[in-house]
Fold:
Amino acid sequence: MARLSTKPYTVLITATGKAPITLSLRPLPLLIGLGVLVGIPIAWIGTLLYQNVQLAQRNQTLSETASEVLIELDAIGNEIEVLKHRAGLPENQAESPRRPDEEKTLPRGGVAEAAPAEMLFAEARRQLPSLERMLAIAIKPALEQTLASEAKQAAAFPSGQPVAGKAEISSEFGLRPNPFGARSYEMHEGIDFAGPVGKPILATAEGVVVRADYNGGYGNHVRIDHGYNYETLYAHLSAIEVQIGDRVKRGDVLGYLGSTGRSSGPHLHYGIYRNGQAVNPRYYLKLEAPK
Structure:
């Protein structure tokens, strides 16, 4: 392998009528100097290129993050509209920020350019306070009232079982033959559950006791006003455990199964009244279909 010579070179520069110029060059220092002169700009350019690539990547990441934030804000805005409807708020009661998804169907066009991250974050900052105000001032209180009202209504809905444990249905709602042998038909405004005397009879929903006494036809009976235009009747009890004015909850014991009043044997007559009219309890209770 050829080795680089380290001996100095002499370069003589002459011109007619001029004194000659002599240059003494050493190869190794010359090459090192040239390498430094060439290498510094190349390294500087490389550093700039690397920094620009890194900056572009950071800007791209920031833009993607800002876009995701705006998309999430749009989704939150849509959920807020659902909550407004759920809470029963009119359209003009809460401020509704403009959202891009509301304008998707409008005709538009042009060259698509990426929005700067700064603009996207500024739009997010603009939308967020109005969403927070809408939730805190308008939607949250109205929704709490709505949920509380719905909870009360659900508690007052007569969907519970009127007899503890299993009970056999001995008479359905509607037209039936006279149970005492007469050759006639009568309208039965409830469902009869046969069972042993003393079986607990339960309130099927929350409400206030409005009757708890003896009646010739129903015998010992309890009537509960559940509000929302619902009442329930529990008849032919052997004993009553509540008084007029008592507030009861679903599952509370009202009395015990018996055969008082117009009854052919131990059973509970259970009736549901909607707006004062008798309705079939099967529509409210989880009962197997009649055979």
User: Anything to note?
Assistant: The chain has two domains: 38-97+115-156, 168-283. Residues 168-283 form a domain with the Glucose Permease (Domain IIA) fold (CATH 2.70.70.10). DSSP finds two helices and 14 strands in the chain. The chain has a mean pLDDT of 77.
